[in-house]
Structures are given as structure tokens and as C-alpha cells.
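Job type: complex structure
Entries:
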Amino acid sequence: MTDMAKPANTNRAIRPPRSQWWDVWDQFKTHKGAMFGAAVFVFIVLFVVIGPLIWQVSPTEMPQKALDLIRGKNLGPSWEHPLGTDQLARDVLARMMAGGKVSLAVGLVAMVISITLGTTVGVLAGYFRRLDGPLMRLTDLFLALPLLPLLLVMVMLFRDPLGRMLGIEVGTFLLIVTAIGITSWMQCARIVRGEVIALKEREFVLAARSIGTPPIRMVLRHILPNVMSPVMVAATLGIAGAIITESALSFLGLGFPPDFPTWGRLLADGADYLQDQPLRVIWPGIAISLTVLSVNYIGDGLRDALDPRIRGR
Amino acid sequence: MGRAMLDATNTQKTLVTVRGLKMYFPIHSGFLRRHTGDVKAVDGVSFDIYEGETLGLVGESGCGKSTCGRALIRLYEVTDGVVTINGKEIAKANPQDLRAMRPTMQMVFQDPQASLNPRMTLASIIGEPLIEHTKMTKAERQARIYELMDAVGLNRSFVNRYPHEFSGGQRQRIGIARALALNPKFIVCDEPIAALDVSIQAQVVNLLEELQARLGLTYLFISHDLSMVRHIADRVAVMYLGKVVELGPRDAIFADPLHPYTEALLSAVPEPDPSLENTRERIILKGDVPSPANPPKGCNFCTRCPKVMEMCRSIEPTYREVQPGRFLACHLYDQNNTSAGSTSGIEASQKHVQQGELQ
């Protein structure tokens, strides 16, 4: 990727210097779904980042007096609370914003961990024959593990020590993204390994070997750019998967601490009041679905835009 | 064709020496994936290539031509043998030394589509060897890329394009430009024209010849197109089932093939003149090429040879110089067998051979 970004472009007479990324952007712009997804994603990011600056209501503060608490809980939408209040009279809009920040961060970071791990394992296993057996058996081992129980055990074991060391929020955040990351890289590793084995036999890799390109640059320059498409798909699905896994963990009460809002936690809390207050489930549900959908469309557009053969069609 | 005349005198400096080159691909089978045999793709090949000449390497599909070319510049880890290029041993060199030697030897590949990375621009493809082996600045590299594009006849405005935007002939020019980037002495052309249209083939071959004349390149030209080899090569080596069966100056081989396999191969070349074409006698070999995993005992060609003798089935013929500059591996020309060989091989016309085969 980095190598592709700098075609030696000191061309004065014939064509103005132009980074490849402009071509990528031009192609990305023609993908309607991707542009729509990008717009939605930007809107969600602005909602969770800029939103709290405008809507300055605390997402965690409860009314001090018992009477206010009883009167103010489980309200429907009103001008004071546009999305209503929850069972502890906290503002749902503020909680949606605060929860979104955490959920998005978990999704992105866990995806990066899982893709990095998966691509590394896949490339090593595919490119170096000697590593293929051990690394793929390791992948099989991870695939065979029942993930949810494993996650539960990890959270149970490490949440408190990490919380004491780094503070409860940072500790839990790190624990959850690591846990999700290292339990979701296997699909990516398998896909990448298969692609790398196929690519390794292509003549352009042989040509690079006849030039004397060392293995590291061979992987970076010739292998990785050509496995971008499946990795991109795995990455976008990974974000969605990570947000959903985090929701599931929070739903089970093993994610962030109970007073710490995430979209999954809001969903879990709202589920108890599904009969009376269906909107409290619908808001975080819509937010998660929109994020996942928009990221998938962005990934689709990026994959097409990064492939020079599709570009310009 | 001054080169051909120079060759005949054999006074040139040897650039590439190949001695007993073997390239076996192991076969693993059974539950434990035991090593049960080898595909002997190249089985003890020896030849020299002189500086500035073109050695044509011909043979039918699967006889090990491409593997030989690739093993020669160590794209495969060779099983056995010695290869020296420009006085340096290649076949067993360690990776650091090998990398330093890479600029002297380059390769042009058969399929121009597959040999170019679809995600790199033309500039980065041609520039890759420069990045790997020189310390040029970006501007110097750019100048060299333009120079190379001019040399192979590519428009400078193509520099930012991708391989899929080019035609087959243009792609092969890109491949040639990449091979030329480091000023190599020796280029292995692995069927560089096989995947191209006939009209484009001539262009690419002329380009290769022009570059050879201008830059003093040495080619190993692998092909199954005999008329093209006749056009471009100074000397011709004929391969059958992993072995070189005959090697000699082009004109001598085409005028007077010694080995029965060469005879059969050359009789397959179509004749452009229809009246001659009608009288042309073809030697049609029967049967298939034996598997290189299980070659026949004795001479490799004994299963299909029209002039097979009893000894061919048991004793492997030695590869030796039978006439000055002509190497051969065939029992027909053994010392104690010269009379038999000369009557059936050298003096007998093609027609006799044909009849002999039919009887």
C-alpha cells in the first residue's frame, strides 16, 4: 500500500504529478452506496463526538431526590429529553452519544487488532512454507474454541486486575478490544493465506524474485496490495462483528461497568422495558445497524476503488 | 548476420557455463507424505552460451525448457549442477551474493499479463529493479524509466498507467524494459512471444534483436516456435524429457539434423511455399512423451525413436561433441557405430527415413 502511494511522479511535460490516492478518491466518489455510507458514518461520528458539546446533559447523573427519580424515570420523548429517560431518570440522548463513542472506538480498535493479527498470520503461513503447518494448526485451534465462554472467562479473570492497574474504564476498554481482537482474526488469516499461496505462484512474484527483491519487500510491494480486497471486506465485517460482540458482552453484563453507557448496554437495559418503552431498544438498535451498514458500504466502495482494474468503469 | 559467422569460429568469450544442471521436483505421497520420487524436469544439462549470441532452446511442451531457464538464473533451488554466469557461480551461491549477481541476469516471461503486478503503475514496475539495486534519486530514476520506455518503444505518457490498460505487445515491452533496467548481460527469454498475436510477435522479436545489437546482450531464447528460433538464434539446443539431445549452430542443425528427435521436430515446421509444402514429408512420432517422474531406461527417446536400436533401451547415450561445435546424445553416432549412423542418419534423405519408419 505505501509503495503504491508514491508512483515516481516528477513528470513535467506529459502529465501532471498525481498521487494514486486521487484516482482512488475519484473512483470512490462514483460508488453511490459508498458515498451514502460515508455520509451516514460521518454523521454518526459527529453525533458522538460533537453531540455532547451541544447537548450538555450528563449521561450518568441521576436526580438527587428520590421523588425526582421516581417522577423522571422511564419517560417518553419530550422537549426536555428528546429520546426520553431510562429507568434511573438518565437522559437517553446523552447516553446514546456517550455509548456511541465507546462502541465505535471498540469496533475500530478491535477490527484493527483482528485484521493485523489475521493478515500477519495469513501472510506468514502462505509465504513461508515452513510456518504454514504450525500457524494454520494454531488458527484451527482458535476456531475450535467456543468463543463466548472464552470471552466470559477472560473478562472474569482480567477485568479487575486491569481495572486496578489502568483505571476501570481504560482497563476494561483494553481488555474488551484485545479479547474481541484475538478471538476474531482466524477467518481473515485463512482467507489471506489462501490468497497468498495463489499469488506466490504468479509470474510477477517470480519476476520480482529474478530482480532480487527480498522477502519483506516482496510481501509489502507485491503480496499485500493484491490481498487488499478480501482483507478490506474482512475489515468492514470485523467492525460490525466487534460492535455486536461488545453489545453481547455488555448485554450479558460482562462488558463495561453497569453505569458506563455503550450501545450494547443501552440495548440490554432497554430490553427489560421492551413492552412499555420499545423506543429505548429501537434507538441503540438503529445506531448499531446504521453503523454496521455504512461501514460495510464504505468497505465495498474502498475495495472497488483500490483495484486499478475496476477503477474507471 | 555477422554474429553467426563469428560463432562458427568459436573464438568468443563464454558468458554462461552450465554443467550437469539437475532440477528435480520431489513427489510426496502416502499418509506420511514421504518422499517417494522425483519429477526430473531437468536431468543433467550441460551447455555454454557465448557472449553476444542467442542460444535457442527448443523442445515440445513439458520437456523442461522453461524449468531449465528458470533454474539457470536460480529462480528455483537447483538439485545439482554448476552454473556460472560471467565467471561467478550461481547455482550454490548464498542469498547475499546471489542478490548482488541479480543485475547481470534477467528474465522476460511468457505471459506478459501475469508477469506484471496488476496494482503497480508502469513507472513503479520498471522502477522496481532500480529501487532494489541502485541508489538513484527520484529524478534520476524517473529519467532512467523514461530512457527505458524510449528504448522499448513505449510512449512516455503511459508512465502512470496500469498493466491492464495495455495490449499484449505493449505489456511484453514493459516486461522487456524491466529486464533491461539494470543493464544485464544475460537475459533468459522464456517464450516471450508465445502469448502474442503473430503480427505483434514480429515486433517484439525485432525489438529483442535491435536491443541485442545495441546493448550487446546475450539471450537464452526458449521457444517452441521453430521458425522464430531459426530467425533469431545463432545456435540451437534441442531438449527432450529434461535432457539436451542435440546442440549446434543454427544453420547446421536446420540443414542437417543429426538426432532422430531433431529430425522429427524440424519436419513439423510448415513450409510457406505451397508446392513445397505438398511434397514435405513429416515424421510423425508415435506415442506420448514418457513421464519425467519415470523416464525410460537407456535413452530417453527410445520409446518413440524411429531408428531405435537394441542398445538404446539399456545404455544411456553420452552427450559429446560429434563434429566441431555440434553436440549430440545418440548411439547412432557412437564411435563403433559410425558406419551405421552415417548411412541411416546423415546421408539418407528424409524420404528414406519416412519409409523406414512406415515399414
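Summary: The interface with chain B takes residues 3-4, 7-11, 13-15, 18, 20, 202-204, 206-214, 217, 221-222, 225-226, 228, 307-309 of chain A (CB under 8 Å). Residues 92-127 of chain A form the longest helix (36 residues).
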